[in-house]
Amino acid sequence: MASTLTGSLMKRGMEVATYARNGGEADGGEKQYELPLWGLFMLGATMMVAFIGMSMVEYTFGRIIPTLVMIESPPETISFEPVPTEDSDAPKKTPELEAETVKPKPITSSFRTTLQVLDSKGGFRARFRGVWVFFVSQIAFNFIVHTLLSLSSLLRFVAPIIASVALAQLSLAWTLIVISEPSPKTWFRRLPAKSTWKKVAIPTAVLAITQQLALQLPFYLAVGLGLTEHDPRQLANVGSRKTGMMLLSCLAVFASGLLVAFFLVIPANVTLVRVQASLLSDAEETIVPFDRSFNGKVIPEFVGGTGVIGMLDAWKTFDWSARVRLLKAYVKVLFLQIALYAVLVLAIFAQLFIIMGRDIQKLAPSEGGHPALI
User: Which residues cross the membrane (predicted)?
Assistant: First the structure.
């Protein structure tokens, strides 16, 4: 979501820059307003800060923290009995000492405690752990998808799935780097063995398929409901009854994507991450409590097992408290992104008012004129 919002804003910023560079001429050749160079620099700096901030929210809060939530095991219940102090002057009595039970909260129960753990493992840079392998995997993913689409547009649905499965080891490496203690090794030296690919290929494919369903189902539903046939600029001329039907159709499209994400994408993502985490080497420790045996479900290879958790067991061992914690984390990230976007919009309008004063009205859209900034 953050990348979409940021991309939209950067696109609008480039429109303003091009508009000013062309002497403030609209499409019809009408002379309007030319933004000063210092104003463009101010807006560009604001967009850059916004891009960095939203990228941090997307990566640290939207990826790293949920991954840690997915693998953190329930904290063990710690029982202890208070030790009585003997006082010779005190009257002798035998009070019954009851054992007190303390159940510590999970580290990932709040963003603050999770960030504290990350910072303790490498300072502020730890909030971007795994960023290089993530960056490389994104470049490779886009390259494979674009290459397949250049062969045939019919591969639009399967191209991302093929790319995800082909790069399953990079995804595995990212997860293992994120959840484990810092290592002096570079990320490419921490790539897992080639034999691990077949252990994560199927859950990777399942996640990729659910993600495509979450993207494609709302689109084709919108086409089926006729929403793509309407020109947004002509909505004011549509009758109230038809507007109501269109609103219900939009809600149905939104609900379809939300339901697929809730019931398919999130469980598939949790399953994949936990399968990946089960492949962590015994020589490495995790930064949050983690039950490597998954309640005894993982059988080591040296005793005849597979050494990896099954997909169904990976989801079943993810208890309800952790599921609620994960959903809360996603909701927090969503509101954090919305808040940042709102602050950015207000900042841009404030800066435009400083730059243009009353002339800010000239950036308003007109018939056949230049589009609005936001």
Answer: 37-57, 131-151, 157-179, 200-223, 243-266, 333-356
123 vs 127: CA distance, rounded Å: 8
The mean pLDDT of the chain is 83
Tokens of 135: 């960056």
- Give the model confidence (pLDDT) of 287-297 as tens digits: 999 999 898 88
* Whole-angstrom distance, CA of residue 265 vs CA of residue 273: 12
Distance CA 221, CA 257 (A): 10
Within 8 A by CB and 6+ apart from 142, the residues are none
- Domain boundaries, given as residue ranges, for the chain: 1-77+101-106+323-374
Amino acid identity at 44: G
Q: What is the CB neighbour count within 10 angstroms for residue 53? A: 17
Q: Which residues contact 276 (CB under 8 A, 6 or more apart)?
A: 171, 172, 175, 176, 200
Let me know: does 72 contact 114? Beta carbons within 8 Å.
Answer: no
Which range has the top average pLDDT, 14-28, 41-55, 235-249, 354-368? 41-55
The helix/strand/coil state of 24 is: coil
Over the stretch 132-143, which tens digit does the pLDDT of each residue have?
999 999 999 999
What are the E-state strand segments in 83-148?
Answer: 100-102
Instruction: Look up residue 111 and give its amino acid.
Output: F
Question: What DSSP character marks residue 89?
Answer: T
Q: Which residues contact 279 (CB under 8 A, 6 or more apart)?
A: 172, 176, 192, 196, 199, 200, 307, 308
199 closest CA partner among 311, 77, 281, 114 = 311
Across 107-157, the runs of DSSP E, i.e. the strands, are none
Instruction: Find all residues with CB under 8 Å of 100, minimum gap 6, and list them.
Output: 79, 80, 81, 82
Cα 199 to chain centroid, rounded: 24
- DSSP letter, residue 31: B
Q: Cα(187)–Cα(172) distance, rounded to whole angstroms?
A: 12
